[in-house]
Design goal:
Blueprint lengths: L5 H9 L6 H8 L3 H13 L3 E5 L10 E5 L5 E7 L3 E8 L4 E8 L6 H18 L7 E8 L3 E2 L4 E2 L14 H4 L7 E5 H13 L6 E6 L3 E7 L2 E3 L31 H4 L1 H10 L7 H10 L2 H25 L3 E5 L6 H15 L2 H4 L3 E4 L6 H15 L1 H13 L4 H4 L2
Parallel strand pairs: 3-6, 6-9, 10-13, 13-14
Antiparallel strand pairs: 1-2, 3-4, 4-5, 7-8, 10-11, 11-12
This protein binds zinc ion.
């Protein structure tokens, strides 16, 4: 192993692979002195603590290395069309505080983001922590995200958000890096975090007002060439022929199977529903029309997913989003068409699961996004580099 840095060593400690200096040396092949330099730097930065193991027998027990999850915080903002959810997490992803905000559908960034920032500030205050403790901020939004510009990209759904940089809104709260991701990809990251050792190839479906998919291949979340991979809601579907879609086109899967289409259909049948969550509540109360609508949405999604399953051969399909509380109905429909239309090989032993963190999947994944950024070996090395470069700078000497 060449060029093993302190950041790599932290990764080994976080993963639980290395629990002592001796184990770091064994896993990396580094000399004792080289291990000491890296571990000491991590201890000095409060990212790793060394504790005395309970002694067994004679001799000096080896000190145990532990990741200091309380050394900093990440903030997560999962922004949807009608609701935004927020969490403050420690560096192990444990939620210290959570809040949410209902908003009018389709508001622009100038309305939504300042409110998001003030909610996060209030949340920090509530958990008794300081903005200076924040090391990273994750933000998820519906639609395609331009990862370089940190903006929404060609989104017919998020009107007014296209090309508007999101990070500057958070600058008044913290100077920490802001990472932007698509909402379904954020759920995929939460699942990757939960199942990484079990599933390396997965399709994650978000069934909410809109429909989206996240693709994990070989353990890596796939964004595609333009960041637009997984836009399953606007795949053309035979059963939606000529039905207008909110993207401006017609014939999309969403036009018959998206939450907004279910709201449209149930309203036409005399039900009082404003949001797909109302449709789900009705279905769970036993309303036959709502139950049929969700099952039929599942059938349409399954028919389109069958092609994706045949192409990608995933080990698991995970279903999340606002329709997930009606998982049994939705997935009963989905299985009917999926197993009918996918090839036998790809559908064999294919698991279908509900999103691990339910309604919290969005914030969970958005926190994972921020944690991946701030705890990546490179980011850690950069932080340590700064500390080492200016250990007694005049500005800090008196602090
Ligand atoms: Zn469409």
């Amino acid at each position: 192993m060449t060029a093993v840095t302190a950041g790599d060593v932290l990764q080994l400690v976080r993963d639980g692979e290395a629990r002592s200096r001796a184990e770091v040396a064994r896993l990396t092949g580094l000399s004792r002195t080289a291990v000491a330099a890296r571990v000491d730097a991590l201890v000095e930065a409060h990212l790793v603590a060394e504790t005395e193991s309970p002694g067994i027998g004679v001799g000096r027990p080896p000190k145990r290395l532990e990741f200091e999850a309380g050394a900093g915080l990440v903030l997560a903002a999962a922004i949807g069309r009608s609701r935004a959810q927020f969490t403050v997490c420690d560096l192990a992803g444990r939620v210290l505080g959570a809040d949410e905000l209902e908003q009018e559908v389709g508001q622009g960034p100038a309305d939504v983001l300042p409110r998001a920032v003030s909610r996060l500030r209030a949340l920090l205050l509530k958990v008794g922590r300081d903005p200076a403790d924040v090391l990273g901020i994750g933000v998820s939004i519906p639609g395609t995200v331009d990862p370089v510009a940190g903006t929404s990209l060609n989104s017919a759904i998020m009107r007014g958000w296209d090309g508007v940089p999101i990070a500057p809104y958070f600058a008044e709260l913290s100077s920490a890096p802001v990472v932007i991701e698509n909402d379904t990809n954020a759920i995929a990251l939460a699942e990757l975090d939960a199942h990484f050792t079990r599933y390396q190839d997965a399709l994650i479906v978000k069934a909410s007002t809109g429909l989206g998919a996240g693709i994990v291949a070989g353990g890596v979340l796939q964004h595609g060439a333009r960041g637009a991979a997984g836009d399953i809601g606007h795949v053309k579907y035979r059963g939606a022929h000529n039905v207008p879609c909110r993207c401006g086109d017609s014939g999309c899967l969403e036009a018959v199977a998206g939450g907004w289409a279910l709201v449209r259909d149930l309203t036409a049948q005399g039900r009082e529903v404003a949001h797909v969550r109302d449709v789900v509540s009705l279905a769970l109360e036993g309303d036959v029309v709502a139950r049929r609508a969700i099952r039929s949405s599942g059938q349409a999604i399954g028919a389109v997913l069958a092609a994706a399953v045949t192409l990608l051969d995933p080990a698991v399909i995970v279903v999340g989003g606002d329709m997930a509380p009606a998982y049994d109905l939705l997935v009963a429909g989905l299985r009917e068409t999926l197993y009918r239309d996918a090839t036998t090989v790809a559908a064999r032993d294919l698991d279908v699961l509900a999103a691990t963190h339910g309604a919290d999947s969005g914030t969970r994944g958005t926190a994972v996004l921020a944690l991946r950024r701030v705890l990546s070996p490179r980011a850690v090395d950069d932080r340590l580099g700064l500390n080492i470069a200016h250990p007694r700078s005049p500005l800090r000497a008196g602090a």
